[in-house]
User: Fold WecB/TagA/CpsF family glycosyltransferase from Mesorhizobium captivum.
Amino acid sequence: MNMHAARSAFGFDTLKTILGISVLAIRWDDAVTLLSRLVAERRFTKVSFLNAHNANLACSDPVFAEALDDFLVLPDGVGVDIAAKLLYGAPFPDNLNGTDFVPAFLQASTRPLTVALLGATQVNAEAASVKLSALAVQHKFVVVHDGYFSPAEEPAIVERIARLRPDVLLVAMGVPRQELWIARHIDARHCILSIAVGALLDFLSGTVPRAPLWMRRLRLEWLFRLWIEPGRLWRRYVVGNPLFLWRVLKQKLSHGPRPAEARR
Assistant:
């Protein structure tokens, strides 16, 4: 199920198009309910999150942008909120960043699920599995493989996922690799929900620290990450954030917000 099918099936008809990507404008609790219903009704769905960095990548990578068109995309971060306010006059109802939202969704899911983890290092994936098992004791968590594999190893990994057929598959390989990998290899034969989760397993393992709660509440987690990893992230934030806002202003000035319904 993609964004438009989910909208028609569940009545969530508010989409905001940010730089050509349709993002679901939905409250936190409604998003949890939506994903829970998708699992309960066994509706195969690919889930991703849009932030300023992902949006920039989609602008320069049409293959990635096309892949996202078949995902249920949730809003992540202050950048897309600013974009929504500029383009639509209001921010997204809630910040559904995957690092907080995915564990919360799993905790809220009372039905026992099998959750597969794919990506990060083996050590971090195993540590994340232990953390998730403590957060959501009703579920079974299985580490399928780390994220460092060759193309020759892919068929065996995909086959293992198909044999396991988890309810939820968390893919943590970074953007855009994780979305492209899901798009190319995962369908209804493999799982129900396939969620591209970025650095979630690294955060859960404790290897990569989260920002203090006060910084998260002020929507400044990106600044904390830049401080922790300046060499890797300076281009994403120092260059990427102004570029994203320039692109959003260009969208607004050139033709305003593009109706999401016209994209399909």
The radius of gyration is 18 Å. The CA atoms of residues 77 and 106 lie 20 Å apart.
